[in-house]
Design a protein that fits this description.
This protein is of the alpha/beta class. 30% of the residues lie in helices and 24% in strands. Among the domains are: 56-181, Rossmann fold (3-Layer(aba) Sandwich), CATH 3.40.50; 434-538, 2-Layer Sandwich (GMP Synthetase, Chain A, domain 3), CATH 3.30.300. The strands form six sheets. It has a nine-stranded mixed β-sheet with strand order 4-3-12-11-13-14-15-16-17, sandwiched between helices. Strands 8-7-5-6-9-10-20 form a seven-stranded mixed β-sheet, with helices on both faces. It binds 5'-O-[(S)-[(2-aminobenzoyl)oxy](hydroxy)phosphoryl]adenosine.
């Protein structure tokens, strides 16, 4: 057995980012699962899901059976297969089993429409699909049309005419020797949700999983063997994949899985029942939990020691109120599917709410103008990241790959500024920023001011042309339950923005909506509001 223990390499010269050294022959599944059996942690709990608790010893057998089951279908090394699965013990079994056998799992968002699944199956040309029974329905209308797809396997009680995962696993051996993969082999793909355009297949290497677990999981979170991580963000999402699998599995700790929708009541239920030590959410979930005064520490986890937030910027007031109510800081950090996990983050004990913190050691950040020139302190630029977990490329998108993966630097598509103390302040997506009267408006900044109002739940700001054709900010606002929109409230919101931001930034128009358009991973789709707004103008 090769020695899989990673050794942090010393901070390297400027051209080569600091990283984690791994042997050239490397299979991530042996590192994250088998290693614990070899080192005496086989009886540690690895997974707690809706059906029970599973030790590393048990998960290893499931992984081996799943890998053998896939091999039994005739998959060859490097073959990719799609998995559209709810969070349960079957997810790690299939994901790691596939990788251990040398196949390439493609974890697919469970919340998409049939059209998107059609697109992803064609785009990836996956020959096998493993799908959770409740999700099969969305695939049925498009399965017939697939030319590359040969096998559909259903995880659940009823296979609806397709082979069941549990039967294939029961028939397969619980012993499996790891395929002779290398650290630089493509290990798995994810499809980026993409706030605009079609989803993109993002190809990641075996080694990238270790890099994120070492640099962010251990480096920032300080994950330990006695931790229990509950991620409301699902395992198919890079954020959830790290939180729920690679971080706990890097140290022999446990992941707590919720198969259903992470609504506040379901999330608080899991907190109370399974007492996680680390909780991973998105800003809207933290806000929703806080909006119900009934949710207090007695209904949560007494062992909670860390909370993290990503996916969108965490509004300052949400972080502060959470701290006050639950006595635990929320570490806001920004990550992406392309970089696999968080690369700028706040630190335990040094949280600066309203910022994304500082670069995670092992990653470097720079803010640039369109011509590539770096901007100075306090100026807005596009964020580029260099670090050892960047994806290799996008599937089937040469131009986008060249634009995004620029050698050591990866383009994020986000605007940031950094202050004198080195903290990074989020200013919005490159595509969402606009100029009003020659001055930049960051929708995010205006939205943050608006949601500072007690009656407001969410807000989105877009450019809207006035009668002369000049762009000015327009706000779409969702009020909290039981609040009536009114002219008086509009005036208060304008006043709030005028008090805290420059004169050109206040919303000239305010419209109230019941909800905002969002991606399946919870990001506000401002482009949809812009489209809606323009369609109305034309009429
Ligand atoms: C935005 C944030 C401000 C930002 C992700 C943690 O969200 C993740 O990946 P996606 O590919 O989206 C990436 C984009 O989302 N974003 C994410 N976090 C923040 N903006 N503050 C934040 N804290 O526009 C980024 O480019 O879906 C998050 C870990 C892994 C991930 N994949």
């Amino acid at each position: 057995m090769p020695n899989h223990a990673p050794t942090p390499s010393p901070a390297a010269a400027d051209s080569a980012p600091a990283g984690v050294e791994l042997p050239a022959e490397f299979n991530a599944a042996t590192f994250f699962i088998d290693r614990h059996l070899e080192e005496g942690r086989g009886d540690n709990l690895a997974v707690i899901d809706g059906s029970g608790s599973y030790t590393y010893g048990n998960l290893a057998k499931r992984m081996n059976r799943a890998g053998n089951a896939l091999a039994g279908l005739g998959l060859r090394q490097d073959t990719r297969f799609a998995m559209c699965m709810l969070d349960s013990v079957d997810f790690p079994a299939v994901f790691w089993g596939g990788m251990k056998a040398g196949f390439v799992p493609i974890a697919v968002n469970t919340l998409l429409t049939s059209d998107h699944y059609d697109y992803i199956l064609r785009d990836s040309r996956a020959g096998t699909l493993v799908v959770s029974e409740p999700l099969l329905e969305q695939f049925l209308p498009i399965l017939e049309k697939q030319t590359a797809l040969e096998h559909v396997i259903v995880a659940g009680e009823d296979g609806h005419g397709y082979p069941r995962l549990r039967d294939l696993m029961a028939e397969a051996s619980k012993e499996l020797e790891a395929a002779d993969t290398r650290r630089d082999d493509i290990g798995f793909w994810l499809y980026s949700s993409g706030s605009t355009g079609s989803p993109k297949g993002v190809k990641h290497l075996h080694r990238n999983l270790v890099a994120t677990a070492e640099l962010y999981g251990k480096g920032v979170l300080g994950i330990r063997e006695d931790d229990r991580v509950f991620s409301a963000a699902k395992l198919f999402f890079a954020y959830g994949l790290g939180n729920g699998m690679t971080f706990p599995f890097s140290v022999g700790a446990a992941g707590v899985y919720l198969a259903g929708r992470p609504a506040p009541d379901a999330v608080m239920d899991v907190m109370a029942h399974h007492q996680p030590t680390i909780f991973c959410g998105v800003p809207t979930l933290y806000a929703a939990i806080l909006s119900d005064p009934d949710y207090n520490p007695s209904k949560g986890s007494a062992r909670l020691r860390r909370c993290i937030s990503a996916g969108e910027a965490l509004p300052e007031n949400i972080g502060k109120r959470w701290n006050e109510r639950f006595g635990v800081e929320i570490l806001d950090g920004i990550g992406s599917t392309e970089m696999l996990h968080i690369f700028l983050s706040n630190w335990p004990g040094k949280v600066r709410y309203g910022t994304s913190g500082t670069p995670v050691p092992g990653y470097r950040a720079k803010l640039v103008e369109q011509d590539g020139r770096e901007v100075g302190v306090g100026e807005i630029g596009e964020l580029l990241i260099s670090g050892p977990s960047a994806a290799e490329s996008y599937c089937n998108q040469r131009e986008k790959s060249l634009d995004t993966f620029m050698g050591r630097w990866t383009r994020t598509g986000d605007k940031y500024l950094h202050d004198e103390e080195g903290f990074y302040h989020y200013c919005g997506r490159t595509d969402d920023m606009f100029k009003s009267g020659g001055n930049w408006v960051s929708p995010f900044e205006v939205e943050s001011a608006i949601i500072g109002h007690d009656n407001v739940l969410e807000a989105a700001v877009i450019p809207h042309a006035d009668e002369e054709g000049n762009l000015k900010p327009k706000a779409y606002v969702v009020v909290k339950d039981g609040v009536e929109p009114s002219d008086a409230l509009e005036d208060e919101l304008r006043g709030l923005v005028k008090d805290s931001l420059e004169a050109w930034k206040y919303p000239r128009w305010i419209e109230f909506l019941d909800s905002l358009p969002k991606t399946a991973t919870g990001k506000i789709q401002r482009f949809k509001l812009r489209e809606m707004d323009q369609a109305r103008e034309v009429r």
